[in-house]
Write a structure and sequence with these properties.
Length: 160
């Protein structure tokens, strides 16, 4: 009789896979611009509690964002998207390197990056699109405001 062997204490195991509830939500979420928890639960066939837990995890992963609808007390969700034009991954331009260096210090918005680095908004958007294509940055949202950061940035990196 074969026995399963467990990894040694402290040994690394394979990265956890996404939970089935998260997969279901990620399949359905792009079909509409915004979803509330109840409609999403009915559509994917899960309880609102399971949907809420999965959405919390997807929010932490940066794959989903909360959307506020003026005059509505419900919380809505949609896919997280930077809104940048998709480009092919490739070597970084001088502007992209400058923007990446800037983002290593702190997360920032397109407008503030442009102002701080004295670049045009179009130059910053182009640089961010290239950084995104190379999977070097991620974005988060404060309302409708998109905030860009390096993938490995944490609040502990904040230079004051």
């Amino acid at each position: 009789m074969a026995t399963a062997t467990l990894p040694a204490r402290g040994a690394r195991t394979a990265a956890p896979t996404r939970k089935p509830a998260e997969e279901k939500i990620l399949e359905v979420l792009p079909t509409r611009s915004e979803w509330n928890e109840v409609d999403l639960a009915k559509t994917v066939g899960l309880t609102p509690t399971h949907v809420r837990n999965a959405l919390g995890s997807l929010l932490e992963q940066g794959l989903v964002r909360q959307i506020s609808v003026y005059g509505d007390s419900k919380t809505y969700y949609g896919m997280a998207s930077s809104g940048l034009e998709p480009v092919e991954a490739g070597p970084l331009t001088r502007e992209a390197e400058r923007v990446l260096t800037h983002l290593q210090d702190r997360p920032d918005t397109i407008s503030n990056i442009a102002h701080t680095l004295r670049l045009s908004r179009a130059q910053v958007e182009s640089a961010l699109a290239l950084l995104e294509a190379n999977d070097l940055i991620a974005c988060s949202f404060v309302g409708m405001l998109v905030v860009f950061r390096t993938r490995d940035w944490t609040s502990h990196d904040l230079k004051i």
